[in-house]
Amino acid sequence: xxxxxxxxxxxxxxxxxxxxxxxxxxxxxxxxxxxxxxxxxxxxxxxxxxxxxxxxxxxxxxxxxxxxxxxxxxxxxxxxxxxxxxxxxxxxxxxxxxxxxxxxxxxxx
Length: 109
Known about the structure:
By secondary structure, this protein is mainly alpha-helical. The chain is built from four helices and no strands. The longest helix is centred in the last third of the chain and has 37 residues.
């Protein structure tokens, strides 16, 4: 419902914007432009990634956020991958064998 279609008793009352209110995202283009200008003015660093010196500390921060699998999970994942590889290898071998038989049938007199 847009503001011009709101009931008369609710005109001027701001409506919840869902995640935008929680994340403090701009709800109008004017707010968005103002925040973008303020952000551009506040950053003194010209490089987009923050520079080479900040790369390794950022990598360490991101690696701390990773949820590493347990040893049991790794064994299960490895077994699943091996089973998938066996099935796929059998499938490709079967198709290759059948294609070879077909080619032999066509080329033999």
